[in-house]
Amino acid sequence: MKKYFITFSFLTLLIITTSGLVVLAQTDNSNNISSIKISSIDDILRIIQNISQWMYRIILVLVVIFVLLAAFTFLTAGEKTENVKKAKHQLTYAVIAIIVAILAFSISTIVQNILTK
Q: Taking the domains of the chain in order of start, what are their residue ranges?
């Protein structure tokens, strides 16, 4: 029963803290797809850079969730070696996600250097 209470509390806290993000996602609709004009290579590079920055942010949010989930699993593992191994695997996946985030962020710079030379 205590485990369900902790899980429910964690999920409730997660929902409460992220529910305000929906309001921040509102826009003025001035940046719709039909208004994007690509006239030079700089516009393409800007689009690639924007996409990579969004990927970087999304992956970092997922990394934080993975690390919190691994910490929660590790703290609730007790003496169960299976859960400790599961937490270690989750941390490994979080490190892999950090590497992917760094690559996603740096790929725009690499493409920009290749195309502008």
A: 57-117
